[in-house]
From TrEMBL:
UniProt name for this protein: Endonuclease/exonuclease/phosphatase family protein
Organism the protein comes from: Archangium lansingense
A UniProt-annotated Pfam family: Exo_endo_phos
InterPro entries named among the record's database cross-references: Endo/exonu/phosph_ase_sf (IPR036691), Endo/exonuclease/phosphatase (IPR005135)
Domain Endonuclease/exonuclease/phosphatase: 4-231
Keyword Nuclease: yes
Top-level taxon in the UniProt lineage: Bacteria
Alphabetic keyword roster: Endonuclease, Hydrolase, Nuclease
GO MF terms held by the record: endonuclease activity
Amino acid sequence: MKVLTWNVLHRVHAENYGEPTIHRWHDEPERVRRVVDLLSKSLRVDGFGAALLQEVSGDVLEALRAHLPTWAVLDHPYPRVPRQKQPGAPMRDLSEHLVVVAPEGSTVLSAQTFAGDPGKGVLAVTLPSGLVVASTHVSWGPKGEAQLTTLRELFHASSAPVCIGGDFNAEREVLVRALSAEVVVGALSPGSPRTRPAEDATGGADIDHLLVYRAELRDLRVLDHSELSDHRPVAATVT
């Protein structure tokens, strides 16, 4: 099954931290439409079986459910609602969610906000096939190290194959050290575009990952995203 993970960029975070990407999209409803169009094409046309999403605003969540009525659009809302520090583009719903878009019949296995960070967490979903997929957003630094322990427990608590995708705020080597040897952390091919581009577009970091346990990961690649977010989607086939 083809899976993608993508931090779609919450508008409030983008404006609060001055992300250059957002300056290309002054009209937030248009950006939301384009984000949803890209995801809809991936699922309906390109054959992806699940999308694991982070930083999903209430506006994006509403649009996903409206445009993908035959899919399960499952979410975990954070207790923290992003606060605008300065006037920005109008939004109807400022709430922030982890989201898994999956086939009809998929159900939430577990969902939690990580202790110590009300804007990070994990949402795990069981697909009709039995595969467990999860979307996660992990904090940077020491907080993130503790959260990786929670994710390791999620892997080992399941008797089913598991795929976790998300924004880990850490390079691959950090995940390899923190997780057991049975967890496969996808490795991008040399020369792949950075998953988190630098502002000048000449560098960046690879902090968005797909991981599997009791499964295989192949054809890992970074997808084009029309500069809709400060992160690029990462895709792979899980078998």
